[in-house]
Design goal:
Chain lengths: ~280, ~325
């Protein structure tokens, strides 16, 4: 309760939560407001926004309703942000926990691998993964999760390093708790808050990564993703710039919402760090 | 000397990392559907199985995976990155042609982000929670959330199409025959928009870190001492606070080097710059796996080099780092 009250003390956090709720509402109401396939032909191509009441945001180069694509795109972005983040954070937690808890050669090996992932530019690795495994939406999501785990892993490891010799862990050890139980039952709950906050950064980056991939036409062309629409609009950028502009604003607002919520959570969970 | 020693040791420690990356990506690429020969055959408009077999033997693709990997690593030791079947040139040559544009773009973006991030961060920290701080922090948040390629497209619409102030792409004007200083200015004009596009998100990150680290250092005892000695505020900021507050910024350069390289893939595609990033994209599309592997090797080297330089700067800013070992 205290945390909720602390969260709502920050206006930026409230704005963020509001924006996020709007995006979620858009995703939820998409099939209700736009029962037709968003990628189906809807009218004449390149209708400007606000000129035809049937297409409030206009149509793209091939005559598809932009508003419908924006609403369905909210689903894709939330799906990508959510699932890729869960994958990245889960891998990160397991590797970071094992590495920080055991130390020694296990830590050495795991940190070498983490370092390798961090040395390799993650967008390049994403390109390689997509080139190898194809650009189906599921593979794209998994690939984004796979390139994003090193930072949560490092964070978890740092938390575990500072927690593993505390009294409650030693007490657990004397009681004869198994390693697994100690790691996931005792230490992890204490190490989790900063990782959860960091998950918002991972989510924001995942959404941006997918949109960049879609813009390069390496993401799934069969889903209504905002990045795909920006890539399409590039062909008509000189005159009908709105085709690219509208989905870009949608991405901007979504990523902004996720970051604001993350920052609000951070301030609410660590009140002493407020203002930094 | 101790500084070099320390940085050198860090450099040596990155060799296993490099090998790990190469072996990992090499094995990963074995899963790729179709190899270079398939792509070549497709480009030639098809051919019989015999030709494909001959080509595979020519490029050493008929050997076992471990033998191919061994061959590749052994060639790397001699700085031979293999041959690009698509470009018809050695991979090293192809990459060398593309590297300058990327390094130019990265250096320009990094300087832009670092310089303005520093200034804006200092301004925000000095007026903490007043309107300049709120304004700068809000703008920073928005920049952070902006997809770079979209910002690039919108910048093209505004500055190249409507205002016609700046060129929309390329590295230089192909119709101009300018040399010397005029050519440099021409390239600089072409680089303004790409630099802004790539640097924007880093500007947002740097100003946030700079602000936080300024606030932290401003509360330390030695700053209070300096104040009580009666030094004026500007002097305290420039001589006492800045040097200490810069440390996290410098760390960040090393951490973000890889991200920046990744970002250049997109930015170079938006502005059709002949750089490494676009080469990476093209080699993915064309299944030029040899070139892709070469790019990954060179990018990893680049990131390691940046980190080496960061270590040197770091030790120079904070002498305790070398004595602490």
């Amino acid at each position: 309760m205290e945390i909720v009250r602390a969260y709502f003390r920050s206006p930026a956090a409230i704005v963020g939560l509001f924006l996020l709720l709007v995006v979620i509402a858009m995703a939820a109401s998409a099939s209700w407001l736009f029962p037709r396939d968003p990628l189906a032909l809807a009218g004449r191509p390149l209708v400007w926004p606000f000129t035809n009441p049937r297409f409030p945001l206009g149509t793209d180069n091939s005559g598809r309703d932009i508003a419908a694509q924006i609403f369905y795109g909210a689903r894709i972005s939330l799906l990508i942000g959510g699932v890729a983040t869960v994958i990245a954070v889960l891998i990160g937690i397991v590797i970071g926990a094992v590495s920080g808890y055991y130390g020694g050669w296990v830590d050495n090996v795991l940190m070498r691998i983490t370092e390798a992932f961090q040395t390799l530019p993650n967008f390049l690795l994403l390109l390689v993964l997509v080139a190898v495994f194809g650009s189906n939406i599921n593979t794209v999501i998994i690939a984004i999760g796979i390139v994003s785990w090193p930072a949560p892993a490092r964070l978890t490891r740092a938390e575990f390093l500072s927690l593993r010799n505390r009294e409650f862990v030693q007490a657990g050890r004397t009681l004869g708790l198994k390693d697994l139980k100690l790691i996931f039952g005792e230490i992890l709950p204490n190490a989790l808050p900063p990782v959860i906050v960091y998950a918002s950064v991972v989510m924001a980056v995942s959404i941006l990564l997918e949109s960049a991939l879609a813009f390069l036409r390496l993401s799934d062309p069969n889903v209504a993703s905002w990045g795909n629409l920006i890539g399409l609009g590039r062909d008509v950028l000189r005159v009908q710039w709105y085709v690219s502009a509208i989905p870009g604003i949608a991405i901007l607002l979504t990523v902004l919402a996720v970051s604001l919520v993350g920052q609000g959570l951070n301030d609410a969970l660590n009140p002493r760090l407020k203002g930094r | 000397m101790r500084v070099l020693n320390l940085a050198g040791r860090r450099l040596a420690a990155s060799i296993p990392t490099l090998i790990l990356i190469l072996v990992g990506v090499f094995l990963l690429l074995q899963f790729a559907p179709g190899d270079t020969v398939d792509a070549m055959m497709a480009q030639m408009g098809g051919g019989d199985a015999r030709t494909a077999e001959d080509l595979r033997r020519f490029y050493g693709l008929d050997l076992s995976v471990s033998a191919q990997l061994g061959n590749y690593l052994w060639r790397l030791v001699r700085f031979d990155l293999g041959f690009s079947a698509i470009y018809g040139k050695p991979v090293a040559t192809v990459i060398a042609e593309r590297l300058p544009a990327t390094i130019l773009l990265m250096t320009a973006s990094l300087s832009f982000a670092f310089f303005f991030g520093l200034i804006l961060g200092v301004i925000a920290a000095r007026g903490v929670n007043k309107w300049p701080d709120t304004l700068i922090s809000t703008v920073g948040l928005i920049f952070y959330a902006t997809p770079s390629f979209w910002f690039g497209l919108m910048a093209i619409v505004v500055f190249s199409i409507y205002l016609q102030w700046l060129p929309a792409g390329g590295l230089s004007d192909i119709t101009s025959t300018a040399t010397g200083i005029r050519a440099v200015l021409d390239t600089a004009r072409h680089l303004i928009l790409p630099t802004l596009t790539l640097g924007l998100i880093f500007l947002a990150i740097y100003l946030r870190i700079m602000r936080a680290s300024m606030l932290e250092v401003l509360n330390l005892d030695f700053v209070r001492t300096a104040r009580s000695k009666g030094l004026d505020e500007t002097r305290i900021i420039t001589r006492h606070v800045l040097r200490n507050a810069l440390l996290p910024m410098v760390t960040l350069i090393g951490l973000q080097a890889g991200t920046m390289l990744g970002g250049s893939v997109v930015v170079e595609s938006v502005f059709s710059l002949p750089g490494l990033g676009r080469l990476a994209y093209e080699s993915v599309v064309q299944r030029d796996l040899n070139t892709l592997l070469g790019i990954i090797f060179v990018s990893a080297l680049l990131v390691i080099t940046v980190n080496f330089i960061v270590d040197l700067i770091y030790a120079r800013l904070d002498p305790r780092i070398t004595t602490g070992v």
